[in-house]
Amino acid sequence: MGKRVIVIGGGIIGASVAWHLARRGAEVTVLSAGPGPASGATFGWINASFYLDEAHFRLRQAGMAAWHRLEAVAGQGLVDWCGCLNWEEPDPAETARRLSGLGYAIRQLPGTELRVREPRLAGLSDTALHAPEEGIVEGAEAVARLLAGSGGVVLSGVKVSALLAEKGRVSAIDTNAGRFEADHVVLAAGTETAALLAPLGIELPMLQRPGMVLRTRPVEKVLSHIIVAPGQELRQDAAGRLVASTVGKHQEDRADRIAERPDLAAEATLARIAALLPGVDLELESVTLANRPMPADERPVIGAVGPEGLTVAVMHSGVTLAAILGELVAAEVMTGADDPLLRPYRPSRLIA
């Protein structure tokens, strides 16, 4: 019998961790209170062009490479490697120099090439940044594929009420469906992480970071890239839906509350999209609200915490980092490996 590992959380991080644990021979059970709200509401952009410091860049860059490795084993189609066109940067030449200096694939395009690449767009700039290696993951679809591919037991509708420790080690989990015993627990519960740690005397400071993602009804194919225009990020999914954050630069959004009603935010977002895509008949299909799991210093929290046998993995952006953290957390749980990529993100920096 393999090591019994319970993963709490059925979002993109929990699904990736479960998939990689199973590959290493663990006996995996995933407990999910329901569909992961952040994974289902994500814009889905895999990139390392947004980062907080060089260590964060290296982790995100490794995250992009790990998605390719995951696709090579789990099957192609998890990611649409469509690339990104960005003309929101105030100094695109400097941004290109900075990212190129870090070894990132990016170049500055003239407006003529931008218009060839995206002929349906209006209001184009005279120049844009092209990041050809960036991509899109449909969060809910990727979660379903990874959980199914893990071969583990996935129990949905199971809400964890307490982590139980005995003699300095996590030994079991109490839930609304009974008690589960485990050799190791991975806590990948997103915004619920802090509440589950608190009864163990572990205070993990988290930020309130709500976000909204809009989807239109399907339209004909009008976009070929992720679009980052002034004040609006936009993409198109395989079914033809246009997908947009209701705020510009959503990865840098530090608002702690939703400033306006979702329907009003959606109307304003649709107006911005209409200006970018004149002549396209836009109808709202859905607006999804979710709180993004954001530790207090805005960086991931990953690693052993509290009693022995407990690992935490909480962060934004989970989409970019899911594949690499699945690899590294599974290796750490099963072998004790201490990867240098994770050292800046240990829980001890935030937990006294």
Polypeptide structure, described:
- By secondary structure, the chain is of the alpha+beta class.
- It folds into two domains: 4-44 and 140-207 and 296-349, 3-Layer(bba) Sandwich (FAD/NAD(P)-binding domain), CATH 3.50.50; 84-132 and 210-291, D-Amino Acid Oxidase, Chain A, domain 2 (2-Layer Sandwich), CATH 3.30.9.10.
- The chain has helices at 12-23, 37-41, 54-74, 92-101, 111-117, 139-150, 193-197, 262-276, 318-335, and strands at residues 4-8, 27-32, 45-46, 79-80, 84-86, 107-110, 127-131, 135-137, 153-156, 160-166, 169-175, 178-181, 184-187, 206-207, 210-216, 226-229, 232-236, 242-245, 284-291, 294-295, 301-304, 310-314.
- Strands 6-7-5-16-17-18-15-19 form an eight-stranded mixed sheet. Strands 9-2-1-13-22-21 form a six-stranded mixed sheet, with helices on one face.
- Helix 1 (12-23) packs parallel to helix 6 (139-150), helix 1 (12-23) runs parallel beside helix 9 and helix 3 crosses helix 9.
- The longest helix has 21 residues, at 54-74.
- It starts with a strand and ends in a 17-residue tail after the last helix.
- The model has no long low-confidence stretch (mean pLDDT 94).
